[in-house]
């Protein structure tokens, strides 16, 4: 394949995540983007959970029941010459770890903000990760069909809370939070909500192309029109000028107003976003930057999912392609194990719908059958190369429970299920020192993960469990000469356990207890994650 062909394929890729606080409309916006891409013909409203249709991107049964996303979905489709990879992340804060890993695999992010609620806590956390990674952020202010905050107030909130300047690409039309539509600044045209109930949008171009056009005044009424004129004048005079370089560096966010539920402003947002969002970027590795246009194939694993198809009991590893061309059946080196693997059945996704693919390019997300070799963060590359991509962040668990099978006859299924779900990265597994193997200690970032663990063990592995929540909130990995339960003073103030790699870990209930143990064991170092020292 020529360099020109490879570059052409790279430049038409757009790989992005959608981030937001729960209930801001993330999955609904994803659905509408898929609708425009022709990937689905009837969008499933996330609100109508009791109806037959569910959102395409929510595939796990528990998601359909609760109306929330708890795993990151991957969806691919074409639109207007672009190949789009959307990663729909879990909105619930208990699944932020999965979201952080997903953000390692994207080149930009779409941040959804509820027009009435503004910047919420989970949005702040996710934004912070994007900022750390220098990911360009595009803001979609959602639910414009409802009463909402003043747009200037929202801009100020972005600047104060998230410390990022905003450039509005369009502007809400209406007074005191009762909006009728938007004014497109670039095209100088008005787009009003379609009152006919078709949930589309009606575009009404101006004759002259200026917000001062009397045609606008007739359509809107003089009061609303005057308010719009004043707002646009203020924006043009005092607002930031548009600077694509600042957008790419994550210093300026293009801001769009619309309503995913009614489809209003979604198509315009998609087209502008595709034009402005970056193509696949170089990736940092142990051997320096890996350029997408490098002819040799490389990729990393950012997600592992068991039982996407319960009938087949399969495990899929999701990889993000970083360089070169991927072809079906190619042999690649799995850096961590040193094994040569043949990638025989690569798949791309529309939630649960899968298609076997013959080729893929940098920016694409591909699913590979996992024979139990892959781990999150693993590097794949062609033979003759030797590097690993930058490490993934590890999050210390904050909630703990003792988990065992109700029926001891199902111990084998229990061990298999809990081991596979641990490899997905949803929970962290520990065993208590000097205890038998009937039970495990499970650590999670949030309590909702326990519900998902219990649900999936029952429904995917046929195992009912007994779960006993433990009073610990901190885990510390211990480094020192021969750290053992008996040699650690104050180990009885917490619980001494080993992780899956047999590294000693102490679970304690609070910072005070941790300080006491640390002060009484000066030869031992305490780390919040195992990645500091292997």
Automatic annotation (TrEMBL):
GO terms for molecular function: GTP binding; GTPase activity; translation release factor activity, codon nonspecific; translation release factor activity, codon specific. PANTHER family: PEPTIDE CHAIN RELEASE FACTOR RF3. This is Peptide chain release factor 3. Keywords: Cytoplasm, GTP-binding, Nucleotide-binding, Protein biosynthesis. GO terms for biological process: regulation of translational termination. It comes from Dendrosporobacter quercicolus. Increases the formation of ribosomal termination complexes and stimulates activities of RF-1 and RF-2. It binds guanine nucleotides and has strong preference for UGA stop codons. It may interact directly with the ribosome. The stimulation of RF-1 and RF-2 is significantly reduced by GTP and GDP, but not by GMP. One of its GO terms (cellular component) is cytosol. Belongs to the TRAFAC class translation factor GTPase superfamily. Classic translation factor GTPase family. PrfC subfamily. SUPFAM superfamilies: EF-G C-terminal domain-like (SSF54980), P-loop containing nucleoside triphosphate hydrolases (SSF52540), Translation proteins (SSF50447). It is found in: Cytoplasm. Residues 11-283 form the Tr-type G domain. GTP binds at residues 20-27, 88-92, 142-145. The gene is prfC.
